[in-house]
Specification:
By secondary structure, the protein is mainly alpha-helical. Helix content is about 50%, strand content about 10%.
């Protein structure tokens, strides 16, 4: 027999009884829908503990999440903050309604549970479906929009940063703080999403580095300065990351092989590149007759 109830603090708890014995554990959430979704697995765990003896290392998700965040995964600070934000949102309100944010949340929850199972902190791992069910953003800049950005973004050092981001296809986090020790004649080493990677420097990117000092921007400077500029210039629905997508799109339009573009973007697999760019290229297929 089991029941879900809420304490005065607002947190939901699960109580399970069997043959006169009872165990109660916090579900770690104040959202009833989330509590109900967690209930089934925790109910089995508590029942197993009553029958076979308690395992002190069998954690509820909230405690597992804290252990997971405390563990040294070798993450960048931005990755840690993203995981923590998604976890806290999940514990507070469950899975978000936004399709893309929901998929991100599913992936971090699955990653946490997989880690917990691997380290014998939970008895089993059942992945939650939906981690790849998200909307692929397809915004790219037109030639006219790129010209406006390159001609009018201010201040000048940020203007050069914007152009450098486009000419390299690099992520903002990879280039906002560049060490001169990692810059070579036709490439540079950056810390990407999956670790250190090589970024190719074409003649245009090289020219910017030859004529400007390197950047040392805070994590907030780039998005704030970018938003101020695109609003002033009247360029709608524009994100800084769209420069990277436009870089890849224009290379493919020039006839560069998808495998080569994938390497330039630093994707772990060409499948990732195809998933992001195939919808964009469908509109560029020439006329044909069946």
């Amino acid at each position: 027999m089991s029941s879900v109830y809420r304490k005065k603090s607002g947190t939901y708890y699960l109580s399970v009884s069997y043959q006169g014995q009872r165990l109660t554990k916090s579900l770690g959430t104040k959202n009833y829908k989330t509590a109900r979704s967690i209930k089934a697995d925790l109910e089995k765990e508590l029942l197993t503990q009553i029958i076979h003896g308690a395992n002190p290392e069998c954690l509820i998700f909230k405690d597992l999440m804290l252990r997971y965040l405390e563990f040294d995964h070798g993450w960048k600070d931005s990755t840690y903050k993203l995981n923590k934000r998604l976890f806290n949102g999940y514990l507070k309100t469950g899975f978000p309604k936004n399709k893309t944010t929901r998929a991100m949340t599913v992936r971090v929850v699955n990653s946490c549970n997989r880690w917990g199972f691997k380290n014998e902190l939970i008895p089993k791992y059942n992945p939650i479906p939906g981690g790849n069910n998200y909307n692929v953003r397809d915004r790219v800049f037109t030639v006219s929009e790129l010209k406006t950005l390159f001609d009018s973004v201010t201040p000048e050092h940020f203007n050069q940063f914007v152009q450098f981001a486009y000419y390299t296809g690099a992520r903002s986090g990879e280039i906002r703080r560049i060490s001169s020790q990692n810059v070579f004649f036709d490439y540079m080493l950056v810390d990407g999403k999956s670790g250190r990677r090589v970024v190719k420097l074409n003649s245009q990117a090289r020219g910017i580095l030859d004529n400007n000092s390197l950047w040392d921007y805070t994590i907030n400077y780039v998005p704030l300065t970018w938003r101020r500029n695109v609003k002033r210039l009247g360029i709608a629905n524009a994100r800084f990351h769209d420069l990277r997508r436009t870089f890849g799109y224009n290379l493919i339009k020039q006839g560069r092989p998808i495998y080569e573009v994938s390497k330039l973007l630093g994707h772990s697999s060409v499948v990732t590149t195809e998933k992001h760019y195939a919808p964009l290229m469908a509109t560029d297929v020439g006329d044909f007759i069946l």
